[in-house]
Design a protein that fits this description.
- By secondary structure, this protein is an alpha+beta fold.
- It has three domains: about 55 residues, no CATH class; about 260 residues, Naphthalene 1,2-dioxygenase Alpha Subunit, Chain A, domain 1 (Alpha-Beta Complex); about 110 residues, Rieske [2Fe-2S] iron-sulphur domain (Rieske Iron-sulfur Protein), CATH 2.102.10.10.
- It is built from twelve helices and 26 strands.
- The strands form seven sheets. A six-stranded antiparallel sheet has the order 9-17-16-12-11-10, with no helix packed on it. Strands 1-2-3-4-5 form a five-stranded antiparallel sheet, with helices on one face. A five-stranded mixed sheet has the order 22-23-24-18-25.
- Strand 3 and strand 4 form a beta hairpin.
- The longest helix has 23 residues.
- The model has no long low-confidence stretch (mean pLDDT about 95).
C-alpha cells in the first residue's frame, strides 16, 4: 500500500485499500479517512488535498512500472512485463523532500519580474563545459511582451468557435498526423481523425501521401481504422475503389454512371511533409511550406536529438470530457505543479522558477535548470545550481550513451539537459531533449466539450540498429484512467492528476461570471502565445487587457 507525506505539511497519506486513504497530521493522533475522489468518510480530520488523495489511493500502476518514463531502457514491452530500470529511476529509491509553503514574492530582473529562485540562463551557458558545441537556438531567448491576457470563456464550449476551428485551423494548418514508422511499408496507412474530418495517410512506392478518407460515391469513410499492406482503398458500401495514390481504380457497374469517372478520378489530396520522423498534413493546397511554419529556432533546437530514429515505446489515446484547448493548456505551464502534483515535489522542486520562451508557432519551457523550490523556501546558490546542472548533464550522458551506444563526451551541458516541455501550434507538444513525451490534443467529433489526448513516448534507439516495431496503439475511454496504460510508466500517474482537473475546469468555464479567464504575463506566456496564434487563425479581435 502506498504511504507518503504531503510535501508542504508532512501530513501522512496512507492507502488502506479499496480506494480509502487515511490522512494523519504530523505529530498528532488526529486522522480522517477519505475516499480517493475526496469524499470525507470519518475522523477528526475533515480536509485533505484531493490530488494527494488521488495519488495515494486512486488507480495505480503495477509496482514494477513505477519508473521514471524518461529513464527506463528503450526496450519493446507491452505493459504487462516488468520494466528493468537504471539505479535511481524507481520512485521508491528517491529521497523525499518536505518543506513548508512560503510565498514566492518574485524579483525584478532586467527581463522583467521572475521567481525568487530564478537563474538567468546565460549563467549556465557561460559556464558550460563545452560551449563551442552549443547551438545558436539555445542562446536565443524571446519572452512574449504584454500580459496578463484576458480570454473569453465562449471559445471553450460554444459550437460556433468549434465550427470556426474546423474551417480555419483544421482545414488550413499544418498538423501532425502520425509518425513515419507507423506506416513503414508500401500499403501501410494511418487514419487521422480531427473533429468530423478524416484523412488517409498512406505510404506509396513514391513516398507518403494523404487523401480525404471519404468515398466520392455516397460519402462513406473508406477506412474506419489504420491498417497495413493495403493494395487499394475500396469502399465497404458499394465497392468503388481507388489506388494508393488516390487515383480511381474502379466504379462497380460503371455502365450505370455515365460521365461520372472524370469527376471522381482522384481522391481529394492533402499536402504532406515530414520532419524528424513526424508526418504533417495540411488540407490547404495554398499553405506555405512546413519549414516556415516550424521556424528555424525550433528545427535547430531538436536537431541534436535524433527524433527521426526514435522508437515508439508507447502510444496511448484517451477520450476526455473537456474542450481540447482546456486539456492542452493543462500541459503548457509549470505553475500548476504545487497544487496539481504535490507528490512530484517529494522528489523535486515546485518549478515556479521555470524559464519560458516563444518563437512564432513554437513555445519552449524548462530548457534551463529550475533548481530548488522557491515556494518552499528551498533556495540554491549559483554554485549549487551549477553543480546540479553539471551532475544532471553527466547523468544524461551516461544514460543516453548506454541506450544508444553514442559517444556524448563532447556534448555541451546545455544540450544534454535540453529537456523542455515544448509546444507547436495548434495541438502538438513534442518535448525537448530526452524526455520522450509527445502530446497531441484533438476535438472529438463535433462536440466542443469532448476531446482526445494522445501520448507517444519516443525513446532513443541506436542509429546503427533497426528499430523495434512501434508499440501497439492503446485506446482509453472517458472513464479509464491513464494508469490502465502501464507502458506510460510514472507519467500515467502524473497525467491522471492533470486530467482529473479538466472536467471541472470545463464546467466552471461554461458557468463562469464574468465570462473570461486570465493568463499571466510570464509563467503562462506559452498559453498567451497560443491564443494570439488562435485569434489570428480564426480572425478574432485581440482580447488582451
Amino acid at each position: 500500500m502506498r504511504r507518503e507525506p504531503h510535501p508542504l505539511t508532512g501530513t501522512m497519506y496512507e492507502h488502506l485499500g479499496d480506494g480509502k486513504v487515511k490522512v494523519q497530521k504530523e505529530g498528532s493522533n488526529s486522522y480522517g479517512i477519505f475516499d480517493w475522489k475526496g469524499e470525507w468518510l470519518e475522523g477528526e480530520v475533515t480536509q485533505a488535498d484531493p490530488l494527494m488523495l488521488m495519488y495515494i489511493g486512486g488507480p495505480d500502476l503495477p509496482l514494477d512500472h513505477e519508473v521514471l518514463w524518461m529513464a527506463a531502457p528503450s526496450e519493446c514491452f507491452d505493459g504487462t512485463k516488468p520494466v528493468t530500470h537504471f539505479p535511481g529511476t524507481h520512485m521508491d529509491e528517491m529521497p523525499r523532500i518536505v518543506a513548508r509553503y512560503q510565498p514566492d514574492t518574485g524579483q525584478e530582473t532586467e527581463e522583467g519580474w521572475r521567481s525568487n529562485g530564478y537563474f538567468d540562463p546565460q549563467f549556465f551557458l557561460d559556464n558550460d563545459r563545452h560551449p563551442e558545441g552549443i547551438p545558436d537556438a539555445y542562446r536565443q531567448r524571446n519572452s512574449l511582451p504584454g500580459g496578463p491576457k484576458r480570454i473569453s470563456t465562449d471559445r471553450y464550449w460554444k459550437k460556433e468557435y468549434h465550427d470556426l476551428e474546423v474551417e480555419r485551423i483544421w482545414k488550413k494548418t499544418w498538423q501532425m498526423a502520425c509518425r513515419e514508422d507507423e506506416i513503414p511499408n508500401v500499403g501501410d496507412y494511418y487514419v487521422y481523425d480531427i473533429a468530423h474530418l478524416s484523412y488517409l495517410v498512406v505510404r506509396t512506392a513514391e513516398g507518403v501521401r494523404a487523401h480525404q478518407n471519404i468515398c466520392l460515391h455516397r460519402g462513406r469513410l473508406l477506412k474506419d481504422c489504420s491498417g497495413r499492406g493495403e493494395k487499394e482503398f475500396r469502399c465497404p458500401y458499394h465497392g468503388w475503389a481507388w489506388n494508393l495514390d488516390g487515383s480511381l481504380k474502379e466504379i462497380t457497374t460503371e455502365w450505370d454512371f455515365p460521365g461520372v469517372r472524370q469527376e471522381v478520378a482522384q481522391l481529394p489530396a492533402v499536402r504532406v511533409e515530414t520532419w524528424e520522423g513526424f508526418v504533417f498534413i495540411n488540407p490547404d493546397p495554398d499553405a506555405g511550406p512546413l519549414e516556415e511554419f516550424l521556424g528555424p529556432v525550433m528545427m535547430a533546437h531538436y536537431r541534436p536529438y535524433g527524433f527521426d530514429h526514435r522508437y515508439i515505446q508507447a502510444n496511448v489515446s484517451k477520450q476526455i470530457r473537456a474542450n481540447w484547448k482546456v486539456v492542452m493548456e493543462a500541459f503548457m505551464e509549470a505553475y500548476h505543479v504545487i497544487a496539481t502534483h504535490p507528490h512530484q515535489m517529494l522528489v523535486s522542486g515546485d518549478l515556479s522558477n521555470t524559464h519560458y520562451d516563444v518563437f512564432g508557432n513554437w513555445g519552449r519551457a524548462a530548457q534551463y535548470p529550475s533548481p530548488g523550490s522557491p515556494q518552499r523556501g528551498i533556495m540554491l546558490t549559483k554554485e549549487e545550481a551549477l553543480a546540479q546542472h553539471r551532475a544532471s548533464a553527466d547523468g544524461q550522458k551516461a544514460l543516453i550513451g548506454a541506450l544508444t551506444g553514442e559517444d556524448l563526451s563532447d556534448w555541451p551541458d546545455a544540450v544534454l539537459n535540453g529537456t523542455g516541455f515544448n509546444d507547436l501550434f495548434p495541438n502538438l507538444h513534442p518535448w525537448g531533449g530526452w524526455m520522450r513525451i509527445c502530446f497531441r490534443f484533438r476535438p472529438l467529433g463535433d462536440n466542443p466539450e469532448e476531446s482526445i489526448m494522445d501520448i507517444y513516448l519516443l525513446a532513443p534507439w541506436p542509429k546503427d540498429k533497426p528499430r523495434p516495431a512501434p508499440a501497439k496503439h492503446r485506446k482509453l475511454g472517458f472513464d479509464d484512467p491513464w494508469t490502465a496504460a502501464p507502458e506510460l510508466l510514472s507519467l500515467s500517474k502524473i497525467t491522471d492528476q492533470d486530467v482529473f482537473n479538466v472536467p471541472s475546469v470545463q464546467r466552471g468555464l461554461k458557468a463562469k461570471s464574468p465570462p473570461y479567464v486570465w493568463f499571466s504575463r510570464y509563467q503562462e506566456q506559452k498559453i498567451r502565445n497560443f491564443h494570439i496564434n488562435y485569434e489570428r487563425a480564426l480572425g478574432l479581435a485581440d482580447e488582451t487587457e
